[in-house]
Amino acid sequence: MRVSRYRLQGARVLGMLCLLLMAGVSLAHGQGKPPERGGTIRIGLWQEPSTLNPYYATMYATNLVANVVLEGLVAVDPAGTYYPVLATEVPSVANGQVSADGRMVTYRLRPGLRWSDGAPVTSADVRFTWEALMNPANRVVTRTGYDLIEKVETPDATTVVLRFKRLYAPHLTLFPYVLPRHVLGSLPDLNQTQFNRLPLGTGPFRIAEWVSGSHMTFERNAHYRVSGRPFLDRLIFKMVPSREVGSAQIKTGEIDVLWNLSEYQIPDFERLADVKLAITSSSLSEKLVLNQSAGGDPAAPHSILGDRRVRQALQHAINKRVIVEKLLYGKAKAGTSEVPHGWAADPSIQPSEFNPDRARQLLRDAGWQDTDRDGVLDKGGQPLKLRLSTTSGDKLRELVEQLVQEQLKAVGVAVTIENVLPTVLFGSWGDRSPRKRGTYDIQMYSPGPSIDPDAYLYGFYHSSQIPTEANAGAGNNTSRYRSAEFDRAVEEARGTVDLDKRRKAYIRAAHLLNEDLPVIILYTRLFVDAYRTRVGGYTPNPWAWLGWDAQGWYVAQ
Amino acid sequence: MVLAVFALGALFAPVLSPYHPDRTDVTGMLARPSWAHPMGTDELGRDLLSRVLHSGRISLGLGLLAMAIAVGIGTVIGAVAGYYGDLLDNILMRLTDLLLAFPQLFLLILMTALLGTGLLSIALVIGGLRWMGVARLVRAMFLALREREFVEAARAAGAGALPIVWRHILPNAWSPVIVAATLGVAEAIILESSLSFLGMGIQPPTATWGNMLRSAQDQIVQAPWTAFFPGLMIFLAVLSINHIGDAARDALDPRQGRR
Amino acid sequence: MARYALRRVLQAMPLLLGITLGIFLLIRLVPGGPLSAYEGNPDVTPQDLARLRQQLGLDAPLPVQYVRWLGRLGRGDLGWSLVSHRPVTSMIGERLGNTAYLMGLALVLTFAIALPAGIISARRQYSWFDHAVTTMSFAGFSMPTFWSGLLAILVFSVWLRWLPAGGMYTVGEAFSLADRLRHLVLPLGILTLFSAARYTRYLRASMLEVLGQDYIATARAKGLGERVVIQKHALKNATIPVVTIVALDLPQLFSGALITETMFSWPGMGRLFWEATLRLDYPVLMAVMTVSAALVVLFNLAADLAYGFLDPRIRYR
Question: Which pTM does this prediction carry?
Fold first, then answer.
């Protein structure tokens, strides 16, 4: 049968179309080809930063936005490993840039670095950053670590030598952002400078405008150190009033990225085709901090919680899995340890067992019985009643509290909920804050370690950090935990730069905390970010903030 | 009419509620309204109808309590100011003006932060902010009535201040106060719900219409009934109280012009 | 008259001072403070907190802090936010316009609705129009704004997708009147619903009272046209009591509708106050409350004077 000419032509056209289609599809997937330059991506922020100078605020939103503009010497990748940013390599004892006694650290800056206004980046900028942090007029949030630097030497334009007064184990966490000396150097203080609103940095973008309450616009930094990057023309951070409105907007495409969704929103998002979720673990665990003292005095044990068996019973009575499944839609991990992940974690630690019978047994062993048959255990005339508080206005926390309350009721423990404003919960000693004064029973919130657990474990559990009248309430060991063994472990970890030794010490410390239970870890949250499929190049990083890899983002269309 | 239903519902809430309002049921969270749960369930699986009924008790009770406090304080101050006049009046009125100058919601929020979020504290705070209106009314009535003949007569007869106030002035002064009080309850309910909505009011798990709406905000898309019903309750309750207040005003105030 | 005005202004001074003192004490009594955000943060050591407290002037005794604040106020300096370290004046400046814009429009719209509705309602008392208006106004001011707001967002933004759920305008796009209007509809609508309902009731009641007066009957008997009667006599007298109410409401142009602004993410003064409350940012709280209170006192005074102006029956010694 002879194939008609038209049919042949038609087949050829069809074939060409197919080829074109395939080529188009592979182009769209960027297979092997570099991403297209250009485009704008909008990020929804449901919290407006108070300032963009990350040394002046600890807000997540501040760091999130600042880190597309400002860069530091080194940073941490998603696997938890340090990598060099403005420096050429990460200093270590092995490459000779850290002295054996840990008191001298050398950084070599990359050659040819420029600020976004074209001025060169030099070691003088690093020294200036240190001086600014130490300037008594500057109201920086923390100087920890910087106050241990005796001097910063700059033998040449690309070499920085930090000389420490004594060994500071977490020294790699210093200088996460370098400030420009040529802009700020002549100012007496940085408290009210325009820089805090419109920072100048070395990052892939530079800020074009900040319309308060509405949005911030960032444009490509022409002087960025990686040529050809960033791909995007613009990044816009848009203020949204709440995660809910943000969710509505990301679905309609008004924004492309929404950071830190709440867990209950996840099922809704999983059903969508054009919005994807990026999920990473975090070190933020929601925990119940148990006051082991009676009225704040660590020498006087709490009449109920002072007994370790009671604390263990409480933990066994709580069904962490149900909390995770039902309230967090499975998007969290049941609490394991105070160092849930990272280089210092012990991944073999399992969550506690839900065992109400064991709980009841432990309570009986501790002498608690229900003598008056009212459903609440008592001992010596005192009922097993505990007050639980957390920050008011947080729906998820309210729900968790109510579940915990119910679960504890099942074993005869009566819990009353008394929530307060965050500023009240975290009030100071002078404010008679129950947290500081030790007049609470159980409090629920979620502090956690950053990449280096030193600050957290020492500050929250070392026996010297108990707030008392004598030290005017300084210190965060509000559970009044005292363990000589734990103290030794943490002290050992901060006394060496040997990462392996430190790791082993921190693992010991975490195990001790799980045995003594000054705190019951309910669950470890996951960071969930949503992004539309047109956003390419986005990789979540639990150790950094959204936008850490913004130089690699592109519009995938 | 409607309010009677509410009052009954509130009083008999424990009997009428099909479920315990705080009983969570993690298997059936955010269920649509159905026969088992006529108003659906909330995010923890608690029956909405029960919670709404129980909140009725709290919201109505709180409204009444707050209004009672406001009327109590306001009447005393207004009476003293109106009766004694002159310096005392001046001082008291200055004080009233002072407190009226504060932006209400702002003050409410700050005072709750200070006094805590228990039922009594909130009633105190709301009552403490509303008494000024009552005081002004009472003072105006007292100023007018003070000059009337029967008071003069009583004074001439040698009666002391308190009996005069109690037996002569007060009975004539209470009508506008009643009206104001009724409307006051409505206002108190709205204020309490606003506070709870912002997260500064009565804390969960105790249900109030305001804090139910607050939780519902997040689920508005998936489960609109969690927002609809509590708000509807507030609306209906306030509406009926306002109607009653208006009717009271019509009945008690003969001066309303009729053509 | 002028003497009376002067006297009242002078009387207002100590009142304002008392207000600022009251606000100051109230704010400081609330437990916690602007540094509470850092408590419980492992990276901020006790030494850092002590230093910050000293740098921010929070360690001075309370009377000293108050006097310092007063001194700055006298120089027109509202202080610096303890959270963002920006001058409070610029923070307020940014937001004030937005609030005034929304509230101003709401006020205009309210009167556009309430005046005719109230007047006609009063004239045709008990007609179907009156009943309809009455029912609607009762509904209007009985409805809590956060409920109507939530439902409105649900219906118009989520289900129908006609209107945006928040914000003043779409970010990143050029200025467009249509876009602004679309963003205005919901918050404006909710606000107006509530206040128009109130004012309709007031105006109606006021009109009814006036219409029942003798001089109106006299005017009618004189054979004057109905419209003249209304406009020249009734209206002017009916609006007098409403003036007081409006005067008390005008300061709202400044403080905004906190709940509405929060729900619709309107960047205005109400939200500024709320955010400052959450963080106990003292200077911002002091500034916003003091200015609000001052405005109330001011407008009260203005209302009293205007009253004297409008109502020939009232004269001041």
Answer: 0.76
